[in-house]
Design goal:
CATH architecture: Up-down Bundle
Strand content: under 5%
Order of helices and strands: HHHHHHHHHHHHHHHHH
CATH topology: Growth Hormone, Chain: A
Helix content: over 70%
Number of strands: 0
Radius of gyration: 20 Å
Length: 396
Amino acid sequence: MEIRTAIRREKRFFGFNRNILFTGLTSFLTDTSVKMVYSVMPMFLLSIGASKTSLSLIEGIAESTAALIKTLSGFWSDKIGKNKPFMLIGYGISALIIPLYSFVISPVQVLYLRFIERFGKGIRTAPRDSLIAGSVINGETGKSFGLQKAMDNSGAIVGPLAAFVLLIFSPDNYRLIFLLAGIPAVLSIFVIIFGIKEAKKSQESLFKKFHFKDFPRKFYLFLVIIFIFTLGNSTDALLMVKANETGVKVAFIPLVYLITSIVSVLLAIPIGSLSDRIGKEKILVAGFLIYAIVYFGFGATGSVATIVFLFALYGLYSAATDGIQKAFVSDIIDKNRQGTGLGIYNALIGITLLPASVIAGMLYDKVNSHVPFYFGAATAIISAILMLIFISRNKI
């Protein structure tokens, strides 16, 4: 009776568990901060002497060198049965680092700060996703991770919009943006402390020791597909650089990127709910194909109007893949191993981003601005084909 009453009480939060809702709010605030910085960081780096290759390299190194932490934090959270401490530490690091961007004078310093900030993301990501998976109501993993993605992208709307307003009133004052971006990140810490409750697990169910055989074969097959796709999924910074080179003014770059987030916010929950009904793997095939269209378009076009449309389509891709992939992983892994499994998944993406970013940056600098996008489109098509094969051979 007490359990049924608790579930009814939790459902009053717009149909979502309390943890899922407040975890989403935490992501919204932090993403507001991060996207305020990220939406102008490519232009800032170029203004202090970075090349496009070094720009991609900074992103790749920052993501990849912290990727191992995602696996370790996921396994550790499974081992002790707690997620909230990892979230506090991880989000706390971001809150401390973000304002420090306002004091850098060289690309190398940006790399150091990006590494530390991404280290914080590595600590928090798998335990946060595990908390979401462990708080799902009625098996609606797609819908729950869809909310998480929608809140992420709501922050990705507010952040670039705030950066745009600041650039209008104070042109090229990137350092002011970096300084003010720390405020919502600090607020997210209070949300974790007062809004999120630990998703407790019984001591008997805790994951004590890692063995490869503890995870199903289809989990590893899915990781192979994700590796191939991510190899062509380089940093979004190159999309913003391409938009600028096509004719979008610097001050409007955050607004163009904003379009992606708006579309993703509007569609993440509906697509997540749809994936719960028809199968997440089918949605992923569609997402990969949309990505291929977007990247081929970026490579082929020289039109500002087309660039704007492609950023909107990129939001549809985002809604159909990011949260759905995590929901899919959580569905095919035992509950007491979800932190570890999601950590491996996140780590694989982070590690692969380094060669992906290096390849894209060098193709952009050494060949031309079209080739890196054609490469991304090709890997996405291959991934869609492999996913179709996966569907035919692995019925979940």
